[in-house]
Specification:
globular, nine-stranded mixed β-sheet, Emycin_Estase, two-stranded antiparallel ribbon, 2 domains, alpha/beta, 402 residues, Erythromycin esterase family protein, Hydrolase/PRTase-associated, 15 helices, UCP036794_erythomycin
Length: 402
């Protein structure tokens, strides 16, 4: 019997990059369905790694665990403890833990070059990445340590305060761009001279790439406008490309990120605002035929989020979607879960409609602002609709219910 996931796997065909979205960072079904689909892609189509909207250092700890590294954490819960920067629930949750255990078992009898990986390609971990580089270069007695120490010393006076650094770099010309670019260049040269599957060298290089692009991100952030968004999404694409190169010719990547990143920006109002995103850039660089993007959405239910940046996580009610929105139309077409493939008869899906997007900060009282005008058949190749969804299950953390 053909299942709904079978339909998606067949539609993906020979794509080498599959982009799996989510309408929120706090919905259980989005995580579990992405996990099940990723399993199928790994088992049946030979996909090589998962790249997620997360920090490189914390995701790399989980990567070392699932690859059975000798110095990895002893169990999956310990491996997930490094997800300690807000919003912790994005990756330190039961849904990710269950999938990580599956990856661990899958890799248990595989040679190193056949093991799947799990990597964070976001840009926020500037200080954490610098510390990771320093620690590794010190342990290995690497000659690049001097450049790393110089870069770290440049950032150190800002006490891990991105706003303070951004203001100094943008308005006082007191940035650290030269130092981190020099460090990245040194580590790239080092990586070229190391073995093709030397993952520690890849980690140093990606941490340095984070430092370079995070410096640019925080500098542009204080100026406002679309530049900081574009720096972030271009970084994620560059990080993904470097990991694919590490895995070699023919490698295939699965990306887990919010719909606002993986759905083509050209099919939304982002284009008019001068913004690009991962979905657009990946299609442009690799070709539409090599990329398959799947959006996810829900009509109502609960979600794990906070009502302010850095605030306590709460299980919040997600009200029924607004009249005339994409999610409302799908609900009215039948109160059941659905999969839509935009490969034929796309005429009905070429109109611009509002498509719900929930961030880590959410307040249903301002629901009207949570809809992105979208041409769905151009934004995605397929869409997974969950009529009623449930909040994520965070690990070992107190959750408020509202």
């Amino acid at each position: 019997m053909i299942t709904q996931i079978d339909v998606i796997v067949q539609a993906i065909g020979d794509a080498e990059i599959v982009l799996l979205g989510e309408a929120s960072h706090g919905t259980s079904e989005f995580y579990t369905l992405r996990a099940e689909l990723s399993k199928r892609l790994i088992l049946e189509k030979g996909f090589s790694f998962i790249a997620v909207e997360g920090d490189w250092p914390s995701c790399y700890t989980l990567n070392r665990f699932i690859k059975h590294d000798s110095d990895a954490p002893a169990n999956v819960r310990e491996a997930l403890r490094d997800f300690n920067r807000w919003p912790t629930w994005m990756w330190a949750n039961k849904e990710v833990m269950d999938y990580a255990e599956w990856m661990y078992e899958y890799n248990s009898d595989k040679e190193a070059e056949k093991q799947i990986g799990f990597y964070g390609i976001d840009v926020y971990s500037l200080w954490e990445s610098m510390i990771e580089i320093l620690d590794h270069l010190k342990r290995t007695g690497s000659p690049e340590l001097a450049a790393a120490q110089k870069a770290f010393d440049c950032f150190d006076p800002y006490k891990r305060d991105p706003q303070s650094y951004g203001a100094s770099a943008a308005f006082l010309s007191e940035g650290c761009e030269d130092e981190v670019v020099k460090l990245l260049t040194d580590l790239q040269v080092k990586h070229k001279h190391r073995g093709a599957m030397d993952e520690s060298a890849l980690s140093d290089e990606l941490n340095a790439l984070v430092a370079v692009n995070a410096e640019r991100y925080y500098r542009s952030m204080v100026r406002g406008g679309p530049d900081s968004w574009n720096v972030r999404d271009r970084h994620m694409v560059e990080a993904l490309h470097r990991i694919k190169l590490f895995y070699g010719s023919g490698s295939k990547a699965i990306v887990w990120e919010h719909n606002t990143h993986i759905g083509d920006a050209r099919a939304t109002d982002m284009k008019a605002e001068g913004m690009v995103n991962v979905g657009q850039l990946i299609r442009e660089q690799y070709g539409d035929e090599h990329v398959f993007a799947i959006g996810f959405g829900t009509n109502r239910g609960t979600v794990l989020a906070s009502d302010q940046w850095g605030g306590e996580m709460k299980t919040m009610k997600v009200p029924e979607a607004q009249e005339g929105s994409w999610e409302d139309l799908l609900h009215k077409a039948g109160a059941c879960n659905k999969i839509l493939l935009f490969d034929q008869n796309v005429g009905p899906f070429l109109e611009t409609v509002g498509h719900r997007a929930i961030g880590v900060v959410y307040n249903s009282r301002y629901e009207r602002g949570n809809y992105v005008p979208s041409v769905m058949a151009k934004r995605y190749d397929a869409f997974v609709y969950i009529d009623e969804s449930n909040a994520l299950s965070p690990l070992n953390q107190k959750v408020l219910h509202f």
